[in-house]
Structures are given as C-alpha cells and as structure tokens.
Design goal:
121 residues, two-stranded parallel sheet, alpha+beta, 47% helix, 17% strand, Rossmann fold
Length: 121
Amino acid sequence: MTSLREVGLEKSVDKKPSELSGGMKKRIGIARTLILKPKIMLYDEPTAGLDPITSAEINDLILAMRDKHNTASIIITHDISSAHATADRVIALFGGVNKMEGTFDELKAKGDAELAAFFNY
C-alpha cells in the first residue's frame, strides 16, 4: 500500500484495471517498480496518450520519486516537453544512431535542422 500512497492512488487499491484512467495506469506502473527499490527506473513513453495536465503530473511524479528514492531515471520519449521537464541530459537518436547529446538547452542551441521541429513545441 505504501507504493500506492506514494503515487497518490491509495484509495484505488480495489479498482479493476478497466476502471483506471490512463494517468492512473501510469502511476500504477511507477508504484509497481518502486516495490523493487530500484537504483534505476526505466520509463518508456511515460506521457504517451495523456492530456497536458496529466502529463505534467506524471513528469512531476517522476522527479519526486527520483529525489525521494535517490534513483536514476532513463526516459525514452518523443514528448519534447516531457524531456525538457525531466531530463538532466538528453540523447537524440535518429535511425537508432546517437546524433547528439547534452543538456536540453545545449541541444536546442545547436540549431540542428533535424532537431528543430522537436524544439518548436
């Protein structure tokens, strides 16, 4: 129950998966991982399919759990606003190849044509 409390779902313990919203399902995924007390948390498209408000809440939860549990996070995302909100470092992959890496602001400042569309969010 502690993990559910940490992600704000302690009152949802008796709900069936079909009764959970998209944001609740994302929170459940985080809670399930926290049970294992990981050193690294891996997120695959954590804000995919969510509205902007819920996306921001998930981003905040990712940061809060990172700080509270002293974990590193690896986040795979196409959501540039999520990357901006959560990442200390960014690796931009194109065709599976590391095109460039650095802080969000460093990548934006490079003015790369392929990356430009991502920074116009």
